[in-house]
Each structure stands twice: as structure tokens, then as C-alpha cells.
């Protein structure tokens, strides 16, 4: 896919952790993307970015993770852009 590194893989599982922190604080968020080759990729976004990521992950759009660029790619938000199976590579 154009713009993605050769390591880009379909996301199979998304897990999210939240640490409360002090009362009134945003706390801290950690997302783990598990790709189709069972690799685990962890990011720690800001609270605002975490809210956007949760909405994106809950949208049902097919997700791809590019570990080289640390980029989450979502397809099919409007129309069809790519087939995650077509872009999957053998490990």
C-alpha cells in the first residue's frame, strides 16, 4: 500500500489500559496493537489522542499497523480503500 512500510500488518487485537493518576488528572493510556503475525506494538497517547483512537478502533474499520512509522492506518471509513488480507505478508 502506498506510503506504508514493508512491515505494515493487519491489526487483529486492540487492548487499552488506563492508569487513573491523581484525582482530576487525565491519567495515562496505553494501547497494544496485536498484528496478524502475533507481534505486540505498544503506544502511549495523550488523553485526547486516546479518545480519538478508541473511536477509530470501535468504528469497525479495518486497521493496519506500520511499526516502522508508528502509524495506525484505517481503511473503509468511506468506501473501500484496501483489503487487509490482500496486504498481509507472510512473517
Write up what this structure looks like.
The structure is a single chain. The chain contains 2 helices and 5 strands; from the N terminus they run E-E-E-H-E-E-H. The radius of gyration is 14 Å and the shape is globular. The longest helix is centred in the middle third of the chain and has 12 residues, at 47-58. It has helices at residues 47-58, 84-87; strands spanning 9-19, 28-35, 40-43, 63-66, 71-74. With 91 residues, the chain is an alpha+beta fold. It has a 5-stranded antiparallel β-sheet with strand order 3-2-1-4-5. A hairpin with a 4-residue loop joins strand 2 and strand 3.
For the biggest β-sheet, the strand order reads 3-2-1-4-5
| Main beta sheet | 5 strands, antiparallel
| Uncertain residue segments | none
Helix count?
2
The ordered H/E elements are EEEHEEH
Shape: globular
Q: What structural class do you assign from the helix and strand content? A: alpha+beta
The helix content, as a percent range, equals 10-25%
Mean of all residue-level pLDDT scores: 88
Query: End-to-end distance, in Å?
Result: 17 Å
- Content of β-strand: 25-35%
**What is the radius of gyration?**
14 Å
| Extended strand count | 5
